[in-house]
Amino acid sequence: VQLQASGGGLAQTGESLRLSCSASGRPLNTYKVGWVRQAPGKGRAFVAAITWNTGLTEYNSPVKGRFAISRDIVNNVVYLDMNSLKPEDTAVYYCVAIVAASSRLLHLNPEYQGRGTLVTVSS
């Protein structure tokens, strides 16, 4: 699976950004696709994920209620809508994927990972 992320950039506190992740290479129906992020000087953290065949979504606490993950089944794209952005959301965001039934963790050992996209939120 090849993952290509886009949509990062600069935002001010309270603004919104949308990240996109285009997937190709094989069907995603057995995968969980999500986003992880790495802030400057910190380890990688899970942000959100969606199980492709069920649409079930998961969120880490810091973003719950502000971020929304969704998928476009026809075009094999995963979106991350980031609202009410805060300076602590500043990070490089990576689109990642694992087989949904595996014991892997998206932020620790993803099977597939795209290049990161930088999100900077100024106060």
How would you describe this protein?
The strands form 2 sheets. Strands 2, 4, 5, 6, 9, 10 and 11 form a 7-stranded mixed β-sheet that branches. This protein has a 4-stranded antiparallel β-sheet with strand order 1-3-8-7, with no helix packed on it. By secondary structure, the chain is mainly β. Strand 7 and strand 8 form a beta hairpin. The protein is built from no helices and 11 strands. Helix content is 0%, strand content 53%.
Ordered list of secondary-structure elements with their pairings:
Elements: E1 2-6, E2 9-12, E3 17-24, E4 31-38, E5 44-51, E6 57-59, E7 67-72, E8 77-82, E9 91-99, E10 112-113, E11 117-122
Parallel strand pairs: 2-11
Antiparallel strand pairs: 1-3, 3-8, 4-5, 4-9, 5-6, 7-8, 9-10, 9-11
How would you sum up the major sheet?
A: 7 strands, mixed
Output the number of helix runs: 0
- Could you name the ranges where pLDDT drops below 50 across 5 or more consecutive residues? none
Order of helices and strands: EEEEEEEEEEE
Q: What's the average pLDDT?
A: 96
How helix-rich are the residues, as a percent range? under 10%
Q: Hey, roughly how much beta strand do the residues contain?
A: over 45%
Question: Mind telling me the C-alpha Rg?
Answer: 13 Å
Distance between the termini: 37 Å
